[in-house]
Write a structure and sequence with these properties.
The protein has five helices and five strands, in the order E-E-H-H-E-H-H-E-E-H. The protein has a three-stranded antiparallel β-sheet. Strands 1-2 form a two-stranded antiparallel sheet. It is elongated, with a radius of gyration of 19 Å. It starts with a strand and ends with a helix.
Length: about 130
């Protein structure tokens, strides 16, 4: 990641995002994951700027990351009135998350193979 006023995704980060997307991960989720993986903690506004996403896109991506158990959220109270700021952090290192993602994809491949085998058997019956 390169630093301007805030961290932004660089070429390597964008390549990782593309690879995740090619493997079926929504691009906004991949951008959010890659961005957060390089911060100890970050606010959603940091992710918006650094990953070039809109607030609703970050919100949806963070919900998914939290649902998968890959990220957690804490509220940072502001001085005075107003809504608290959400601060996010990964719950495990990126290599562990990649391993979980890999296992999920390998399971999908096995399911596809099983379904193709079942189809082969059914189609054989049609020919008889």
């Amino acid at each position: 990641m390169k630093r301007t006023r805030s961290l932004v995704l660089d070429e390597n980060d964008e390549r990782a995002v593309e690879l995740f997307a090619d493997l079926g991960m929504p691009k906004n989720l991949a951008k959010t994951l890659i961005y957060i993986s390089q911060c100890d903690e970050c606010k959603s506004s940091d992710v918006e700027q650094g990953a070039n996403l809109r607030q609703p896109e970050v919100s949806v991506a963070m919900q998914e990351l939290r649902k998968k158990g890959w990220a957690k959220k804490r509220d940072l109270k502001k001085k005075g009135k107003g809504r608290p700021v959400h601060v996010y952090k990964l719950t495990k290192p990126l290599p562990d998350i990649l391993h979980s993602f890999e296992q999920e994809k390998l399971k999908q491949v096995e399911d596809i193979k099983t379904n193709l085998d079942s189809l082969q058997q059914l189609i054989k019956e049609y020919k008889e």
